[in-house]
Structures are given as structure tokens and as C-alpha cells.
Amino acid sequence: MENQPMTEVTSDDKLWAMLAYILTPIVPIIIMLMEDKKNRPFIRAHNAQALVVGVVNFVLGIVLSFTVVLACVPLLVWIVCIYWGIQAYGGKTVEIPVITNWVKSQGWA
User: Rounded to two decimals, what is the model's pTM?
Assistant: First the structure.
């Protein structure tokens, strides 16, 4: 995937990338099941990141739910996901610390 040229990013690609961040991890799983969407380079890059962020946020929610103060952390992560979704809808590449490099090293994006 690394040396493939980026195809034209359509408004549909941008919409799916935004939804992947905002409704993570549900929409990224749905995208992985859609043949026409999962192979689009723009969607694939954002979808992989959104899925990892969603799973990490879900685990954080479970682990941190035992304390009232720290239970707000998953909500804050979700608010940041909304920002990343808006950036993706604008056609930009989102760089998430640690997660972006890990997803690329796995060959998912």
C-alpha cells in the first residue's frame, strides 16, 4: 500500500472517513465488510486508524469506568475523534500519535 498512488478522493470517501472516526468502532467494522469501500486508499487509511482508536477508547472506557474523574477520558477521546472526522471530511490526512505509525507498520494503511 505504501507506494500506491492516491486515487482521486471523492466526497463519498470523505463522508465514510468522517463517519469512521465519529462512530468508531461500529462504522470501521462495517466498512471492512463493504468490498467497494474497504479498498479505497483514502478510506482504508482513515478506517484503520479509526478502528484502532475506537478499540483503545472502548478498553479505556472499561478500565477507567471505576473512577468518576477518569471516566471522562473516553468522552474526551471521542470529542477528539469528532475533530479528526472533520479533518478527514476536509480531505486531510490525520496523524494520530503512536497509532498512525503502528497502523502503517502493520500494513493496514
Answer: 0.86
